């Protein structure tokens, strides 16, 4: 089996999909695709085909879907199934990584939050720091202070901050795959 030199990592979702492209172990492209609800299936395929034609990756890395997605979300299953079919049609080797393995590889702990993973990634890729959540509350905490438990801080993220976490998740998938695979140049 030959070494994949171009790896496309995707963090699929029903509204947005984070992507990261690695060449010879280095991050070369990243972002988030946003889909309109009625054209979701076609939009996912179009976005994937565009990056396949432009960059010619030979491996696709996707996070294993959670059990709830496998059984309950027809929208997610349509997106995920479309990604898998497109990968097969273009002869990309597909790898599904367990989310806990990814967290352990990136942060050395299986219960790391998405924000903690994003912060760890920005230590390696400083130019991504501007996409990090700013931990600014969406509303005034003083109003709720009396109702919040003292020992559990609550982090409220805006939609924009959650949006970019999809990209960080895709980057984490790519990094984890590179670190875990003896076949990949690093």
How many β strands by DSSP? 5
Mean pLDDT score = 80
Major sheet: 5 strands, mixed
**Amount of beta strand:** 15-25%
Terminal residue distance:
17 Å
Helix content range of the residues, please? 40-55%
Q: What ranges have pLDDT less than 50 throughout 5 or more consecutive residues?
A: 149-154
Question: Can you describe this structure in just a few lines?
Answer:
By secondary structure, the chain is an alpha/beta fold. It has helices at residues 40-55, 67-72, 74-89, 99-107, 114-124, 141-144, 159-180; strands spanning 6-11, 16-23, 26-34, 59-63, 93-97. Residues 149-154 have low confidence and may be disordered.
Keywords summarizing the entry:
186 residues; alpha/beta; Nucleotidyltransferase, domain 5; 5-stranded mixed sheet; 7 helices; 45% helix; globular
Describe, in plain words, how this protein is organized in 3D.
- This protein is an alpha/beta fold.
- It has a single domain (6-132, 159-180), classed as Nucleotidyltransferase, domain 5 (2-Layer Sandwich), CATH 3.30.420.10.
- Helix content is 45%, strand content 18%.
- Helix 5 (114-124) crosses helix 7.
- The radius of gyration is 17 Å and the shape is globular.
- The two termini are 17 Å apart.
- The model is unreliable at 149-154 (pLDDT under 50).
